[in-house]
Q: What sequence folds into this?
């Protein structure tokens, strides 16, 4: 699948962001090795702590459907009612969830639009160097 297609899926997923407290909507789209794409949005909570990031929503949907291997994740975010303006970078907790299921060369696309030049691609290794992961417990 093309990067831009995955980014479009993240932009679509963001439309469902439930963010009444921050007003900040995030969308993610996770490409599994099976070829399926799982969208995710942030889901906030009045008690704040239970809030789930878009990235983890996408991972948890996919893993709960039996997926265990992944190729790439696209992420977009910004004030809910505005246009996308700049890329956002995933929080530390979401990076740790990625490290549970993904290899160091897993691709993370940080986008601020649908255009061919409106994203940057990083590897999980770049985003979470020296991480603690499943291999440490073998
Ligand atoms: N958020 C995400 O969904 N993903 C990120 O990578 C950063 C932050 C959400 C959590 C909260 O609902 C809102 O953005 C503001 O922090």
A:
């Amino acid at each position: 699948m093309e990067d831009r297609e995955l980014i479009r899926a993240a932009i679509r997923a963001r439309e469902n962001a439930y963010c009444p407290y921050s007003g900040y909507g995030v969308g993610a789209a996770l490409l599994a090795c099976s070829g399926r794409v799982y969208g995710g949005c942030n889901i906030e909570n009045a008690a704040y702590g239970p809030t789930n990031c878009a990235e983890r929503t996408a991972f948890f949907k996919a893993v709960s459907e039996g997926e265990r291997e992944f190729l790439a994740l696209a992420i977009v975010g910004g004030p809910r009612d505005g246009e996308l303006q700049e890329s956002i970078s995933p929080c530390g907790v979401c990076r740790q969830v990625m490290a549970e299921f993904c290899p160091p060369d897993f691709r993370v696309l940080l986008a601020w639009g649908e255009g061919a030049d409106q994203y940057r691609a990083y590897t999980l290794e770049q985003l979470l160097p020296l991480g603690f992961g499943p291999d440490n417990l073998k």
Summary: Residues 113 and 128 are 24 Å apart (CA to CA). The beta strands are 24-32, 37-41, 70-79, 107-111, 119-123. The chain is about 25% helix and 25% strand. The chain has a mean pLDDT of 98.
